[in-house]
Design brief:
4-stranded parallel beta sheet; Rossmann fold
Length: 136
């Protein structure tokens, strides 16, 4: 499928949830949409718990291919998914937008990280189906 829609996963720091979503988007739905992540601020490195747990669960090394990016660093996108920023979520023009309302697991237990990662996995599968059916 040429011309795959571009999906941006957005949160404030682009170090944890949006990075996990970008990685799982590529891993689970790379043939259906292109995944990007970004934030209004960046962190010097991706959340190390997220990196470690994604390696453990999926064998994905996010630090190999991903880094913390600003909104200006990604191309124009078709779909914007906000992770659940309690502050004002950054605005990007797009044709479809949704908020996944995920808790930020930063600084919490491994169980909390796994819960958020599973939630993101589930949401990506739904998004993939919706895109395949031409819903957005």
């Amino acid at each position: 499928m040429d011309n795959k829609p571009k999906v941006a996963f957005i949160c404030v720091h682009n170090s944890c949830r949006s990075q996990i979503a970008e990685a799982l988007g590529k891993y689970l739905a790379g043939e259906v949409f292109e995944s990007y992540s970004a934030g209004t601020e960046t962190k010097p490195q991706i959340n190390q718990d997220a990196v470690r747990i994604m390696k453990k669960l999926y064998g994905i090394d996010m630090e190999k291919t991903q880094y913390s990016k600003l909104l200006a660093d990604i191309p124009e996108v078709d779909i914007v998914i906000t992770m659940g920023c309690n502050v004002q979520c950054p605005f990007l023009p797009c044709r479809h937008r949704e908020d996944w309302g995920l808790e930020d697991p930063t600084g919490k237990s491994e169980e909390e990280f796994v819960k958020v990662i599973e939630e993101i996995n589930k949401n990506i599968q739904v998004l993939k189906e919706h895109i395949k059916k031409g819903k957005y």
